[in-house]
Design brief:
The chain folds into two domains: about 5-220, Endonuclease III, domain 1 (Orthogonal Bundle), CATH 1.10.340.30; about 235-370, Nucleoside Triphosphate Pyrophosphohydrolase (Alpha-Beta Complex), CATH 3.90.79.10. With about 375 residues, it is α+β, with helices and mostly antiparallel strands. Strands 1, 2, 3, 4, 5, 6 and 7 form a seven-stranded mixed β-sheet that branches. It has helices at about 5-25, 35-45, 50-65, 65-70, 75-80, 90-105, 115, 125-135, 145-155, 165-175, 180-195, 215, 275-290, 320-330, 350-355, 365-370, and strands at about 235-245, 245-250, 265, 265-270, 295-305, 310-320, 335. Helices cover about 45% and strands about 15% of the residues.
């Protein structure tokens, strides 16, 4: 490990800011750095690729142009607008924080660290990002891009999130921070990590390569040192698509837990040794006290979340008219017109299945043949 002295830190920061002046991407929240827009962009970009984040940001701003619009919206609208970003707990926190901002601060996002930290769902990183980027306060926000840049710059020989490494990164990054330029500096570091100092570093294009110890030693591809991998868990889900007279039966997930409050086709995680078809029949029998017949396969959808790899098998199912009436009067779900399925919030794997069969313009012969009445 080689630490930068004060002169090196200042020269490194100057080179970084000069590069950023030309390399800065024209992201929508950079037009005016409104605190609301900065906040939403930071929450959306957590564990989300930039291109997807920009699309969702623009759609969100069109629907919820300010804090008051978020606070006043039905939760179902918030979840639907968040769909595709995952981690729906974040969307609920955004609305809870918006409500608190309206109640406590008249709809204006505060520029005080203590007030921001008191809002629901705003952790240390988000608070720092709002203060630095929206309000240009001399605060540092360290994300994965910044960790990667400094792991290489200093040649850290341990994972950057280990306590000692994190301390060194913070101290060196703060030493480099030019006072009064936190907005540009923080974004420049993140931009460098995203565009140049990525998983495969592009050292010849790097504006700070002359200060980089890993580059000097030729071991930049060995930094940052990775954390021990968390083993992935394979999961098999089984779900039944039940229709009658162009209405599809959906159920709402519990408010607490994974994908809380979203709508989905009835189903479950298959037990060990159990076939997906058997699991579908079992969930209708145990949850709704009705019997269904498996009419055919609608294919599978693959979806990865946290450390799980999900393969979701979907089946078209049929039931008697009496069973359908029982579902609507005694069940926990709803019969939704199939044309309206795009208007409800769904987990990603259910949305993919819905898009495959319900959300195309017009009904193809494949849809008509597979999705008839029960």
């Amino acid at each position: 490990m080689k630490l930068l002295n004060q002169n090196e830190a200042q020269s490194c920061a100057d080179a970084l800011l000069a590069w950023f002046k030309d390399a800065m991407r024209p992201l929508p929240w950079r037009k005016s750095y409104l605190p609301y827009e900065v906040w939403i962009s930071e929450v959306m970009l957590q564990q989300t690729q930039m291109e997807r984040g920009v699309r969702h940001f623009l759609r969100w701003m069109n629907r919820f142009p300010d804090v008051r619009a978020v606070a006043a919206a039905p939760e179902e609208d918030i979840l639907h607008a968040w769909e595709g970003l995952g981690y729906y707990r974040r969307a609920r926190f955004v609305q809870a924080a918006a409500t608190a901002i309206v109640e406590r601060h008249g709809g204006n996002i505060p520029d005080d660290e203590k007030a921001l930290a008191a809002l629901p769902g705003l952790g240390p990183y988000t608070v720092a990002a709002i203060l630095a980027i929206a309000f240009n306060k001399d605060v540092l926000c360290v994300d994965a891009n910044v960790e990667r840049v400094f792991s290489r710059l200093l040649d850290l020989d341990e994972p950057p999130r280990r306590k000692n490494a994190a301390r060194v990164i913070y101290e060196q990054a703060m030493q480099m921070l030019p006072r009064g330029k936190a907005r540009l500096y923080n974004q420049a570091l993140m931009e460098l990590g995203a565009l140049i100092c990525g998983k495969t570093p592009r050292c010849p294009e790097c504006p700070v390569r002359h200060f980089c110890e890993s580059c000097r030693l030729g071991i930049q591809r060995e930094r940052p040192v990775p954390m021990a991998k968390i083993p992935t868990i394979d999961v098999l889900g089984a779900y039944g698509v039940l229709m009658k007279e162009q209405h599809v039966f959906l159920i709402k997930r519990p408010e607490q837990g994974l994908w809380g409050g979203l709508w989905e086709f009835p189903g479950m995680i298959s037990a060990a040794g159990e076939s997906p078809e058997s699991a579908v029949r079992r969930v209708f029998r145990e949850k709704f006290a009705v019997d269904v017949d498996i009419a055919g396969s609608l294919g599978t959808v693959r979806h990865n979340y946290t450390n799980h790899k999900l393969v979701a098998a979907f089946f078209q199912v049929h039931c008697s008219a009496e069973a359908w009436e029982h579902l609507l009067t005694h069940g926990e779900g709803m019969a939704l017109p199939s044309a309206d399925i795009r208007n409800v919030a769904m987990p990603a794997h259910h949305r993919k299945l819905a898009a495959r069969y319900f959300e195309k313009t017009g009904e193809t012969s494949r849809q008509l043949s597979l999705l008839g009445s029960c």
